[in-house]
Amino acid sequence: MGEKRERNHEYLEFGIHHVAMIMDGNGRWAQAQGKPRLEGHRQGVETVRMVVKETWDEKIPFLTLYSFSTENWRRPINEVQGLMQIFVEAIDRFANELHQNQVKVRFIGKKEGFPSHLIERMESLENLTEQNRGLTLNLALNYGGRDEILRAFRKFLQDSSNQGKEMNEETFRRYLDTGNQPDPDLLIRTGGEKRLSNYLLWQLAYSELYFTDVLWPDFSSQDYHRALADFVSRKRRFGGLG
Ligand code: IPE
Ligand code: IPE
Ligand code: MG
Prior knowledge:
Shape: globular
Oligomer: single chain
Bound molecules: 3-methylbut-3-enyl trihydrogen diphosphate, magnesium ion
CATH architecture: 3-Layer(aba) Sandwich
CATH topology: Undecaprenyl pyrophosphate synthetase
Mean pLDDT: 95
CATH class: Alpha Beta
Strand order of the largest sheet: 3-4-2-1-5-6
Order of helices and strands: HEHHEHEHEHHEEH
Radius of gyration: 18 Å
Largest sheet: 6 strands, parallel
């Protein structure tokens, strides 16, 4: 992101305001090279840096990355703890760079369950970048789509300003972790699986889905641009006749 590059308005004109990604395949990438799975997660951080930079360069305003699901707690304790350590290191390494580039970082999901030194870093990164008006980067950490919908439902009911008001799609969606952000136009899943794995279940209702076998640590800027170009060739109808 450092150097000033001419930003491309093309994708915005084609209606890409928000890209969501399921960053899958780190473990298999490592295993294929005879390395421990955590090495795959470490390498995956480099791909995160690349996609943030490319999204920013393309002037796409929202990017949401699935980093840890509510189901990922089922993994062996050493992998879970190793991932927490990688998140801590990544925040320490990139916080200033993100802020200097006007990136607004938000964590979606539940902060409960994480070690306090990670929660502190997550909160201070959100506070540091709160006023930034460049790319909004949502990091889905301890995130599950069903959990998010249930939490939103509870928040709606607890909000006294809703007394007597109708719950409809417009009034409800504001209580989701993504608030007033537009829904993702494009979902990219790396790593070959063709499922949503409890990701953004409400928000992905009408997103275009793109699956690639490329493992996340190998996902390159060319691969990203291939997915964006594929999106441009799609006809979105939203149930109408287009
Ligand atoms: C995705 O990679 C990253 C996280 C879930 C944290 P995986 O760890 O799921 O990699 P594979 O699917 O086992 O290869
Ligand atoms: C989805 O990947 C979660 C993240 C990328 C953070 P998983 O590897 O956990 O998904 P499943 O288990 O294959 O569905
Ligand atoms: Mg996986």
